[in-house]
# Entry
Amino acid sequence: MQGKVFLENWYEVLVIAHLVGVFVLVGSLSHNLLFVLGYLRGRFAREKREHFHLKVAFWAYLAVYVLGTLSYPAYGVRIRHPYFDPELPWATGLFEVKEHWGAMALAMLFVCVMLRRTFQPSRERAKLALYVPLCLLVNVIVWYKTIVGCYLTMLKGTFGS
# Structure
């Protein structure tokens, strides 16, 4: 008989909430990036909307991070250790790379939020040289994490079967 793992009974709920948070995160970051890329073409009419999407993305990222952290003990004990580690060690490595990039993206997103609080893109265009690439890189990492996360979940996402 196996002992219970922290929040194991809530694993499926946590993973589904994590997924919903990812939808919000990807959507808000993608919208933010579209507005930010518009800044490069001199389109500044939607600065408030861009800033709103950035704030939503930041809070969504924090929620996704917390939900992922809460679901990790059950994932590690019931899926990763018995299934991925012995049978698909490359999947374990892919998960670890995804998580390391995710931590860096969260730090970059925090920098974006702090930078965006202190400037108005239409008035301080020189700061766009830092802001635009950071927004682009955060988007690339989050999309990568989303695709890899979905792929790994398709390999083995629940305790059953």
Notes: The chain has one domain: 16-155. The first helix runs from residue 11 to 40.
